[in-house]
Design brief:
- The chain folds into two domains: 1-121, no CATH class; 150-218.
- The protein has seven helices and no strands.
- It has helices at residues 11-31, 38-58, 68-91, 101-119, 126-148, 154-174, 179-217.
- Helix 1 (11-31) runs antiparallel to helix 2.
Length: 218
């Protein structure tokens, strides 16, 4: 593990190499998704994801928050980790795991658990905390869709409203002790608010289409 611990004076150089490598892996994944087996793609993403996350977690924290290079390593690792989880679901037999409620539930929950590791005590990464709570919200919505299969969008609107309240409460809880984390709780509430507004926008578009079709028929 010591070999994976980046020296702070070389951190920027390591991050500058990690970012294009992560992009290259993602492009190879997209290019050969239909030609290579899911197991090969799983390994292709898992190796750099594990390396980036290990380097980001092992890097010494020099101040209250991680340096930019450490954040880049963590974000690159988390991005590839999401791809790893999706390919793992396909290896286990799921079709379109990111659009299937059952698979999306455990993928989002697992991603939230991974993001929680650098989000708090040792690394104290605010952006990882944002990704954690957003993934947790997705896991909640997918779980309700999977288990209860509600009709319409009313249930999800109430859940999104609940998430907004939870995120605002988290902001109030941490605004004194963890101000940067608290700011990202507001960002999470904003994302949930946009998602809530999108459900009404979809209803408005359907209504406009219906009115337009009725007028055209007349």
């Amino acid at each position: 593990m010591q070999a994976l611990r980046p020296h702070p004076h070389r951190g920027n150089l390591i991050a500058a190499g990690a970012l294009p490598l992560a992009v290259a892996v993602s492009l190879i994944d997209a290019r050969f998704e239909q030609e290579w087996g899911q197991g090969i793609l799983l390994v292709l993403n898992a190796l750099p994801a594990g390396m980036f996350l290990a380097m980001g977690l092992l890097a010494p924290r020099e101040s209250e928050f991680p340096r930019a290079y450490q954040t880049i390593l963590l974000l690159a690792g988390l991005a590839l980790a999401l791809s790893v989880l999706a390919h793992l679901a396909e290896v286990l037999g799921a079709d379109d795991p990111l659009t299937t409620a059952g698979s999306l539930t455990w993928i989002a929950a697992a991603f939230a658990a991974i993001a929680a590791v650098p989000a708090w005590e040792r690394i104290n990464s605010p952006i990882c905390a944002l990704l954690e709570v957003l993934a947790g919200g997705v896991a909640l919505l997918a779980f309700v869709d999977w288990v209860f299969d509600p009709e319409g969008v009313a249930t999800f609107r109430w859940l999104l409203l609940l998430l907004i309240v939870v995120y605002v409460a988290a902001h109030l809880r941490w605004r004194a002790s963890r101000p940067r984390h608290a700011v990202h709780m507001v960002n999470a509430a904003g994302v949930a608010g946009v998602a809530l507004a999108a459900t009404f926008m979809n209803l408005r578009l359907e209504a406009d289409a219906l009115i337009g079709g009725t007028a055209g028929a007349g």
